[in-house]
Task: structure prediction
Amino acid sequence: MELEEKVLVIKRIHVRMRLKAAAEHRETAERVFGLFADRCPVYRTLKPAIEFKLELVLEPE
Result:
């Protein structure tokens, strides 16, 4: 967050998704992860005003 005229303003959001999946599902998980944001109404609303960093962390089952 940053201050603008003494008001805290959100400038960046870091989204880290943790997914437990078998290694053979990695390609599918990465493909779906690449699509989800543009299907999310909150992301699409905020994207023009806020910088997003999207990260997928795959953990073994």
Summary: The first strand starts at residue 2 and ends at 4. The chain has two helices and four strands.
